[in-house]
Amino acid sequence: MSSKPILITGATGYIGSRLIPRLLNKGYRVRAMARSAAKLGNRPWSSHHRLEVAEADLLEPQSLPQALRGCCAVYYLVHSMSTKGKDFVRADREAATNLARAAEQEGLQRIVYLSGLGEDNPKLSTHLRSRSEVGQILQQSTVPTTILRSAIILGSGSASFELVRHLTEKLPIMIVPFWIDTRSQPISVSNVLQYLTDCLEKPETVGETFDIGGPEILTYRELLRTYAKIAGLYRPIFIKVPFLSPRLLAKCAQALTPVPAELSKPLIEGMRNPVVCKESRIREVIPQRLMTSSEAMVKSLQVLCRDRKFDLLKSEEPFPPEWFVEGDERYAAHAVRESSYRVRLQGKASDFWPLVESIGGYGGWYGTDTLWRIRGVLDWLVGGYAMQAGRRDQAHLREGDSLGYWRVLDIKPPYNLLLLSEMKLPGDAILEFQIQDMPGGRVEVVLSVRFLPRGVSGLLYWIFFRRVHRMVIRTMLRNMARHSNLAILEGPE
Question: Per residue in 394-420, is it b (16+ CB within 10 Å) or e — as a string?
Fold first, then answer.
């Protein structure tokens, strides 16, 4: 393993932000490149001792030498599809040329590029043709370049996956183009990340191009129906209509999903082309278990976290929803509904923390026990398990502990407690306490409930129970503040 850092372009992007912590965990030094270093500041790994941050722009070649200096390799993980007011093909071409030249000048040993599948023919979409051209530019440099070509990447926050998710949830009847039956070979984001990380350690991958895909070949019709089945939705009905342009479809998608039209249009245009692996050599070089489309979707939505029964005597590993863990604010978390209340007290975080750690125990839920019992009965009536679990310890919590209706995902005394609902819901629910010491001997406590709805039923659930959620968390926070014996300065508000 080289002692030199690895540069990650597109560090704030979907793949880059997931690749960085994996490389850090494997012991690599990583240099994260972004146009604005401030965008990396809120990432969980931003303070890692082996992480460096470089501000640079691939379209500004003078900024690149300093970013690449001293690195042994670079991951090229950027695409310019959403470059507003610019020709994204020209922008991609210019960015790749600038990176290739800078990598040559700085004497880098490797370039690893994540590209897209697609046969090289005149009917290939502009988006896929541009990604192929970027690969050619990089491989024409003197720096050995490894290219991994993938189809749709399945994972919470992936633009392609979010299109599938939102359209399926909101349109039980879809008017679709004839190419709804185009074949694709989707791959889980976990498998993509393993290929990316492991190829650095495999000399067989140097200078080679590999097709990467999952174990299944599905049409887009089958992919949408697979998601509907996993999410517990009605099987969608498709009505084929000719002459539906990518531009019109992108405008419709923008109205129904958080994916902007300038990004969804090239993705939709690319769906006209079959994207299937022509070879599978990578499976021998980097063997791993490839997740099916269903498994990848389940992992993203964490359906198992709500539906499986936990052993009351054993604390199991919690499974937080991927949209929450990865911070997918641009797509998945864009649809998250939230209610939050805060209160400010005279005191310290450590003074208030015992009340937080006691919820669900002998102290109950601070004035909202009756409402929680009613909700537990409703959950039991629909086959849930929330009422069958109790606390391991009445005074202290740890990750994985059950609180009856919730499971502890993360706990950082005396500042943070994160809980995931184990009730049957048409979506994922998170309950979080955030406690912060403030100047002047004050402490701020914020109690939030976040809900990622699934389908129309999820949206209706949130609308119907929104006022109840607000009343519950406001009452809990007010009563906890009163029980703390700390002077209430502000709130709950």
Answer: eeebeebbbbbbbbbbebeebbbbbbb
